[in-house]
Amino acid sequence: MAQLSGFVHELSNALKRRDGRRAAELLSPASSAGLIAHQLASSGRPLPTGQLSSQLPEPWADMVAAFLRCLVAQNNGERAVACREYREGYAAALASLLNADKGTESEWLIPLALGAAATLKLLSALADEELARKGAAANQLSECAISLQNFFRGLATSKSSQAKKDASVAVVCVMMKVYFKLNAINNCKQPLQQIELNRLFDNAKQAHKVTLRYYTGRLAAYDEDFQKADEHLTYSFEHCAASCPNNIRRVLRYLVPVKMLLGVLPSEALLRQYGLSEYEPIRRAVAEGNLGLLLSSLEANQVRFIQSGTFLLLERLQLVVVRRLFRKVAAVHAQLNPAKAHQVPLALLEAALQLQGIEKDPLELQCLVANLIFRKYIKGYLAYKSRVVVLAKTDAFPALSAVQLSDPLAAT
Questions:
Q1: Tell me: the pLDDT tens digits for 238-274?
Q2: Residues in domain PCI (predicted)?
Q3: What does pTM read for this prediction?
Q4: Is the backbone of residue 77 left (phi > 0), alpha (psi -120 to 50) or beta?
């Protein structure tokens, strides 16, 4: 095959020159290797491994053979087979080369490693889709995560190569995507800590910074550290390229609920601009203190919110909404009864909720208000016998940024 001869010759030259960038281009599924694999798959001919071993040094001959087998399997619609060939025959050997040399001699492998990490993630996701359709165990992304750890180790633990350490940030970005896809969120913490410990963030490319801040923000929201989540997600939003509106939308899906938990509402224009119309009734519910509207909106968009991983965040807005409603009730009560402005009967809140179609029995309502006080949404105390909330005379409704948003008992 003329195409194969030309491909092997060019790859051999790139390897001899240690031209990692060109070698990575050739060992990409989008290269001429894809056409070679298509011809092999169409003809049913075996891979001419002798031609590879005669022109390529070890272990590259075996690695390239595995790479081409992967592409042939892809052409045949065998995604799981393609993924295993790539991971076990190509990516594993490449990671071994990186880990064998911790110095600068193997810096030329960096483009190959980064290309392999991205390709392996894609192949693993496609393989899991195929396995799931067949009713088999979809475990290729899990195997991918292990391979990515090997790449990360080979780059981040270099003794003398700053270029390798800097490149490890790109691998961590891929790892974050895989871990969140697998819902193995706690696995994100170790590589992120290593990046922070080695001060690699400052040298990272802007795109990688945005990605890392995005996932760090999501991780902080998962840990109920909403101030930290706000900081990282806001950075990601402000520095995300304007030419990538889909990425901006992904950031806003988490930043909007985090901001609302902290008392900052998005504008209608922002939600319209990025196609987040499902958040508009929630924004209105928070602004109006309308618990009925919030609950109906959560129910109407439950599947969408669960799939995007924001449902639990949005559900936490219930206390924010009830606080807003209680504040409005307290304001009306103060106008009607100025002498007892700080003594708000629970019956008024009960009536306001009933107008929104929400029924709460007396004990449930007392527990709700007690929770508001306990979490510092409201300053005051609940007089159980008289069913009255006695508000603090100053700062009865502190800023949401000062509220105990996380569970105060979670650490006990």
A1: 999 999 999 999 999 999 999 999 999 999 999 999 9
A2: 210-396
A3: 0.86
A4: left
